[in-house]
Specification:
Order of helices and strands: EEHEEHHEEHEHEEEEHEHEEEH
Number of strands: 15
CATH superfamily of the largest domain: D-amino Acid Aminotransferase, subunit A, domain 2
CATH architecture of the largest domain: Alpha-Beta Barrel
Keywords: Amino-acid biosynthesis, Aminotransferase, Branched-chain amino acid biosynthesis, Pyridoxal phosphate, Transferase
Number of helices: 8
GO biological process, one term: branched-chain amino acid biosynthetic process
Shape: globular
CATH topology of the largest domain: D-amino Acid Aminotransferase, Chain A, domain 2
Structural class: alpha+beta
Strand content: 25-35%
Protein name: Probable branched-chain-amino-acid aminotransferase
Bound molecules: N-(5'-phosphopyridoxyl)-D-alanine
InterPro entries: Aminotrans_IV, Aminotrans_IV_CS, Aminotransferase-like, BCAT-like_C, BCAT-like_N, Class-IV_PLP-Dep_Aminotrnsfr
Distance between the termini: 26 Å
Family: Belongs to the class-IV pyridoxal-phosphate-dependent aminotransferase family.
Length: about 290
Amino acid sequence: MSRIVYVNGEYLPEEDAKISIFDRGFLMADGVYEVTSILDGKLIDFPGHAKRLERSLGELDMANPVTMDELLAIHRALVAKNDIVEGLVYLQITRGAPGDRDFAFPDPAETPSTIVLFTQNKPGLADSPAAKKGTKVISIEDIRWGRRDIKTVQLLYPSMGKMMAKKAGCDDAWMVEDGFVTEGTSNNAYIVKGGKIITRELSTDILHGITRAAVLRLAAEAQMEVEERNFTIDEAKQADEAFTTSASAFVMPVVEIDGVALGDGTPGAIAKRLREIYLEESRKTAI
Ligand code: PDD
């Protein structure tokens, strides 16, 4: 069934939505995005995603074509128009279509930003079979650019990482730089040792996950010990358990790293508990 999508002020059937071939998102990957999950027809962590979007735009000197109130209204309208109970809203803003290809940024007064939003219907998102089984990851070198804190649409290397994982019979890849794990291809990475949750500290090396912020807050509230520091793949392989967080998969247990099973090879108690707490709290605060 055709979706209703949003493009530059209009709600349209997806087959009628058009973007210029000169759009800088298409030619230069000159764009930023956000993914917000929907549970019970409501948006999860919307204020966090909206705030990070503003930051990404600011870091790239890109104009925001909508106010945050408008953005919330568009998200809600798309959820309603597409009858989404569980799923995602994808949002992308690019530096627009200047009418030709040029490395220099166009004047924002002459070239408005492009804004696109669409929904992805995912019934059963919260009750995921993958979360019950746990996921398997491989490690790969992190060769992305140096501003991973900006949520840009430059996703070729993460896509390649995902393909490398698939080829190895696994689900995802954890990226490693200077010997330390940065993050997963589309999620933040954690290990658990002796009851302590360990995850890399925030910097320009990783995306400041909205789910990460919520999960670390909830972990602290549940009296779990959290340490924000670098860890290696070798340390991860010796961990009791591991997991990832993202808006699209919440808290996802990891049960194998580079062929080494963690613990008894099933989702760990802390990962399972954090998933439960996160889902419960998210449903309560959803808007
Ligand atoms: N990915 N790190 C990377 C590289 C990511 O792409 C993402 C999100 C995260 C987790 O951030 P958050 O908790 O705010 O979703 C970490 C989204 C879901 C995606 O690309 O589909």
